[in-house]
């Protein structure tokens, strides 16, 4: 099990849903969105722990410092990835009625009482129904 050198890091589980729950996420789009997450997360001191997707949403487990401005990061990520996904994958634009790729809302929870391994397993098994 990997332990952080900084014990003050907090673990978060983020779920982002595609606007109108459209079925547009495949492995290619998920990997593209993940790359954008990794690029942007560096400047916010965020580290990806686990990533998985279903056809209409993604699950992200990440760790961050307590002083990380999570709402700013999430809004920046949603905005940038939405724009870039729709630019890179024109077929996605046809499935959505407006400009946004992601739903306005998101779910962000701390992993709290659950062990990181339990949350990682949960996210790993999201596609397996």
UniProtKB/TrEMBL annotation:
Residues annotated as domain Transposase IS200-like: 7-126
SUPFAM superfamilies according to UniProt: Transposase IS200-like
Signal sequence range: none
Gene3D superfamilies found in the cross-reference section: Transposase IS200-like
Single GO MF descriptor: DNA binding
Domain of life of the source: Bacteria
GO BP term (any one): DNA transposition
NCBIfam families registered for this protein in UniProt: transpos_IS200 (NF033573)
PANTHER family according to UniProt: TRANSPOSASE FOR INSERTION SEQUENCE ELEMENT IS200, TRANSPOSASE IS200-LIKE PROTEIN
Protein's name in the database: IS200-type transposase
Taxon lineage: Bacteria, Bacillati, Bacillota, Bacilli, Bacillales
């Amino acid at each position: 099990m990997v332990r952080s050198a900084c014990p003050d890091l907090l673990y978060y589980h983020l779920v982002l849903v595609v606007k109108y729950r459209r079925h547009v996420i495949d492995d290619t789009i998920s990997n593209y969105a993940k790359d954008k997450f990794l690029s942007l997360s560096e400047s916010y001191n965020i580290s990806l722990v686990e990533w998985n997707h279903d056809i209409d949403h993604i699950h992200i487990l990440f760790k961050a410092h307590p002083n990380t401005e999570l709402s700013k990061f999430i809004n920046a990520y949603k905005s940038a990835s939405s724009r870039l996904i729709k630019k890179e994958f024109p077929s996605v634009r046809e499935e959505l009625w407006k400009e946004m790729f992601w739903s306005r809302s998101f779910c962000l929870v701390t992993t709290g009482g659950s062990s990181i391994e339990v949350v990682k397993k949960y996210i790993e098994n999201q596609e397996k129904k």
